[in-house]
Specification:
This protein has 12 helices and 12 strands. By secondary structure, the chain is of the alpha/beta class. The protein folds into 2 domains: 113 residues, 3-Layer(aba) Sandwich (Rossmann fold), CATH 3.40.50.720; 180 residues, Rossmann fold, CATH 3.40.50.720. The strands form 2 sheets. A 7-stranded parallel β-sheet has the order 8-7-6-9-10-11-12, with helices on both faces. The longest helix is centred in the middle third of the chain and has 18 residues.
Length: 338
């Protein structure tokens, strides 16, 4: 089955149209002759209505209803922006005999790496170590620089405290989509055990494949050494980590947030950091951005803060669309573009 002669292949993006998302997709795909369709909202009917014309379905975060696949009689391929489509998409692809390709996005990888960077900065007290080293704080200890050798050196010359290992710790991922799964893989490389919570538990076979363990929300928050947030900021997740939940975290645990600032009650967070209940917090996102210059978080010694740069190494939505072009050309049997 191929697209009709003289007509550009029709690409349907399953996620609803948002101005930046739609503009990036159109700017990349339409000049190459692709016809682009997007649903107007999260109403399933608006997506299903596009199914009969769809040659290539591009999935990202949204679950695709069964009715779409039942009506997608011209479907040639499913392209997923991320590491793995959900089980519903995979099941329909097998039933229809339609190939599925996954394209991990640089933005996902960048945010996951940043979450790990914040955690490492906290557990190895990188910020304080840098500041003290740059300030020449050895003088306060009555030390003088000495030439080093393999045997003679100034190990821990500042007697820096608060150092910890990731190896052997338990990481809890609150939210387990593309970014959460990327963090899990990275953390496992450091020897961490990974627990997760999401609205719909993964199939046990997939849990075994990913080497992760499901936990209910309250248990996850209370039992892990590190809690990393990977949820959208919606009405039901506003201040999800309130004072009660922050106080329920294990004493000496760490909090990492590279998702959205509104997930956390910042006043309560300041309290549990100031009194030492939490060992530290690594934050890339805040309730107000830029974070106000007089915010209490900025005065705490056990935080590592960054100015919402988690996904910055990636070039955003346009780059994601560009990554798809070779796959689209191949599955629609078009010649590569110069």
């Amino acid at each position: 089955m191929t697209p009709p002669d003289g007509a550009g292949p029709t690409v349907v993006l399953a996620d609803p149209s948002r101005p930046a998302y739609e503009r990036a997709a159109r700017d990349v795909l339409e000049p190459l002759g692709y016809r682009l369709l997007l649903p107007g909202d999260f109403d399933e009917r608006s997506l299903v209505a596009l199914a009969p014309e769809c040659h290539v379905l591009v999935t990202r975060r949204r679950a695709v209803p069964d009715a779409f696949f039942a009506a997608a009689t011209e479907l040639l391929s499913i392209q997923h922006l991320g590491s793995r489509p959900d089980d519903g998409v995979m099941g329909w692809a097998e039933r229809l005999g339609v190939p599925v390709e996954a394209t991990p996005t640089r933005g996902t990888i960048a945010v996951a790496e940043h979450a790990m960077a914040l955690l490492l900065a906290l557990t190895r007290n990188v910020v304080a170590g840098h500041q003290a080293t740059a300030a020449g704080a050895y003088r306060e200890r009555g030390l003088e620089p000495q030439r080093t050798s393999e045997v003679d050196h100034g190990f821990q010359w500042l007697q820096l405290g608060g150092l910890d290992l990731l190896h052997g710790k338990t990481l809890g991922l609150l939210g387990f989509g593309e970014i959460g799964q990327a963090v899990a893989r990275m953390a496992q490389g450091f020897g961490m055990t990974v627990h997760y919570h999401r609205r719909r538990r993964l199939d046990p076979a997939l849990e075994r494949e990913l080497d992760v363990h499901y936990a209910e929300l309250a248990a996850l928050i209370a039992e892990v050494d590190v809690l990393s947030l990977h949820l959208p900021h919606v009405d039901t997740t506003e201040r999800l980590l309130d004072e009660a939940r922050l106080r329920s975290m294990r004493r000496g645990a760490y909090l990492i947030n590279t998702s959205r600032g509104g997930l956390v009650d910042e006043a309560a967070l300041c309290g549990v950091l100031a009194d030492g209940h939490l060992a530290g917090a690594g934050l890339d996102v805040f309730v107000d951005e830029p974070v106000p210059h007089d915010h209490p978080l900025l005065r705490l010694p056990n935080v590592c803060l960054s100015p919402h740069v988690g996904a910055a190494p990636a070039r955003g939505l346009a780059e994601m669309m560009e990554q798809l072009v070779p796959n689209l050309d191949r599955v629609t049997q078009r010649r590569p573009h110069a």
